[in-house]
Design a protein that fits this description.
heterodimer; A: mainly alpha; 6 helices; B: mainly alpha; globular
Chain lengths: 136, 140
């Protein structure tokens, strides 16, 4: 039960951060990515703010043997830089640049009343399922 | 740069960092959105509970926040074909590359992971190139 509450709180704070920072708005994200246009550096400040906290948090993780309400830290063990990483990240970059939505903001837009995020999220889930079917 | 909003951006960013810290230090999970969602789609997934709870917060909180403030939802101008192609690429690419803006960008860089740095530089550069082509080459 505690685990579920912690996860719900984390998700809610994450969503609030996306809303307050303006990152749920694709126009803000595209404004950052449009380096040669009317550039809006806001996204870099969002990343910077987040990294100040996560750098400390993951330093604490290294010093602890377990999290507060679970027995182990589930950290990615893959440290390799391979073709999958590069091609996957590049394909993600194209999709992100086309619409201005990455997975978090896409989900955070679902209940805001527009139909576009619903279409985008369905396509995104389909893309995830296709990836699981074609790549082993 | 008249659209630049450094203060809300930094505040929101700090909150995103706090959310990631709560998840890793609380239950030992990385707040990578594409991973949280992607693993949920596996038929053999056993740990659905925390993933669903996280996503409920992620989806619910912005809606409540906008309602409380009386703000309007952001306009999404991409036409239908672009939404479908973009969604497919984001879903496929984030799972193939093992993460997105949150997993690689916020958590991976926070862990000082070289793999996440390469991923982040790649998707940022390709996204910027895509916007350049769409706005300044095709869109003219």
């Amino acid at each position: 039960m505690m685990k579920l509450l912690v996860a719900l709180l984390s998700g809610a704070v994450f969503g609030l951060g996306l809303a307050i920072s303006g990152m749920i708005n694709p126009a803000k994200v595209l404004g950052f990515l449009d380096v040669f246009g009317n550039w809006d550096p806001s996204l870099a400040f969002v990343m910077g703010g987040a990294l100040i906290v996560t750098t400390v948090a993951f330093a604490v993780v290294k010093k602890r043997s377990s999290p507060l309400w679970h027995d182990v830290f589930h950290l990615p063990d893959n440290t390799g830089i391979d073709r999958k990483l590069i091609i996957g990240s590049a394909l993600f970059g194209i999709g992100w640049g086309l619409v201005g939505l990455c997975p978090g903001p896409a989900l955070s837009n679902l209940l805001l009343g527009a139909w576009q995020p619903i279409v985008f999220v369905i396509a995104m889930i389909a893309g995830m399922i296709v990836q699981r079917m074609v790549v082993r | 740069m008249e659209n630049f909003t450094p203060i809300p951006a930094t505040l929101g960013g700090l909150l995103i960092g706090v959310a990631s810290a709560i998840l890793i230090l609380g239950i030992g999970r990385v707040a990578g959105i594409s991973g949280v969602l992607g693993q949920l789609l596996k038929s053999e997934a056993k740990d659905r509970g925390w993933r669903l709870a996280f996503l409920a917060g992620l989806i619910g909180a912005p809606a409540l926040w906008l309602m409380m403030n009386g703000d309007t939802a952001p306009a999404i101008n991409a036409p239908l074909p672009l939404l479908i192609v973009g969604g497919l690429l984001v879903g496929f690419g984030t799972r193939l590359g093992g993460g997105c803006t949150s997993g690689h960008g916020v958590c991976g860089l926070g862990r000082l992971s070289a793999r996440s740095l390469v991923a982040t530089l790649t998707f940022m550069a390709v996204a910027a190139l895509t916007v350049y082509i769409m706005r300044h080459v095709v869109g003219g």
